[in-house]
């Protein structure tokens, strides 16, 4: 099964409104720049790729070692990967304090997964994808500057999930296969 470890986003409506506002202002066509579906909003901490049921059992055991306290993320800023003038991914970021806690959580999980020979292909950067560009890169122009000092909701992060991804004709369907809760 195709899998990854992530934290979910519950504050979906403000982010969905942001997507609509950006897409409308930029005049993007849905086939060229596809918004991420609300139910798929998440922060990927590490992508694991294809795993077996045996791998899943070992990953669950390692995830049981993860200890973290609940923390709040405030959604803010809009950016693009690899860069604003050639975007393939448009994302929103988080506040500095929440971002530090999310990075610490991700690094803990990444180090535990490394013990099982799962490696992150790049350092974790706290961002949530809100658009995927399908038809060549796009310029996001002044979008980053327009949203630099705005917030788009917040969430209490108190769970981490091992997820599987099933690819269907209308996009991916994510399912939680194991969850670790924060320690209060």
Salient structural properties:
four-stranded antiparallel beta sheet, Cyclic Phosphodiesterase, Chain: A, 184 residues, alpha+beta, 38% strand, five-stranded antiparallel beta sheet, globular, 9 strands
Structural description of this entry:
- With 184 residues, this protein is α+β, with helices and mostly antiparallel strands.
- The protein has a single domain (2-181), classed as Cyclic Phosphodiesterase, Chain: A.
- The protein is 27% helix and 38% strand.
- It contains 4 helices and 9 strands; from the N terminus they run E-H-E-E-H-E-E-H-E-H-E-E-E.
- A 5-stranded antiparallel sheet has the order 2-6-5-4-7. Strands 3-1-8-9 form a 4-stranded antiparallel sheet, with helices on one face.
- Strand 4 and strand 5 (89-94) form a beta hairpin.
Structural class: alpha+beta
Total number of beta strands: 9
Radius of gyration: 17 Å
Could you say what the CATH topology is called?
A: Cyclic Phosphodiesterase, Chain: A
Provide a brief overview of the structure:
This protein is an alpha+beta fold. The protein is 27% helix and 38% strand.
SSE map:
Blueprint: E1 2-8, H1 12-26, E2 33-35, E3 42-50, H2 53-63, E4 71-81, E5 89-94, H3 96-114, E6 128-133, H4 143-146, E7 151-157, E8 159-168, E9 171-181
């Amino acid at each position: 099964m195709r899998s990854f470890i992530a934290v979910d986003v519950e504050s979906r409506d403000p982010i969905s409104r942001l997507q609509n506002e950006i897409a409308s202002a930029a005049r993007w066509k849905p086939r060229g720049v596809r918004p991420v579906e609300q139910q798929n909003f998440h922060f990927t901490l590490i992508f694991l790729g294809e795993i077996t049921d045996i791998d899943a059992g070992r990953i669950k055991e390692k995830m049981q070692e993860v200890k973290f306290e609940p923390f709040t993320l405030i959604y803010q800023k809009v950016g693009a990967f690899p860069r604003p003038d050639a975007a393939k991914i448009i994302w929103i970021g988080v506040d500095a304090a929440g971002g530090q806690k999310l990075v610490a959580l991700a690094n803990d999980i990444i180090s535990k997964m490394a013990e099982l020979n799962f490696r992150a292909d790049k350092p974790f950067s706290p961002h949530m994808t809100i658009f995927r560009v399908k038809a060549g890169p796009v310029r996001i122009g002044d979008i980053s500057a327009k949203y630099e000092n705005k917030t788009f909701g917040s969430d209490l992060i108190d769970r981490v999930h091992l997820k599987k991804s099933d690819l269907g004709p209308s996009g991916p369907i994510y399912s939680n296969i194991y969850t670790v809760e924060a320690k209060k």
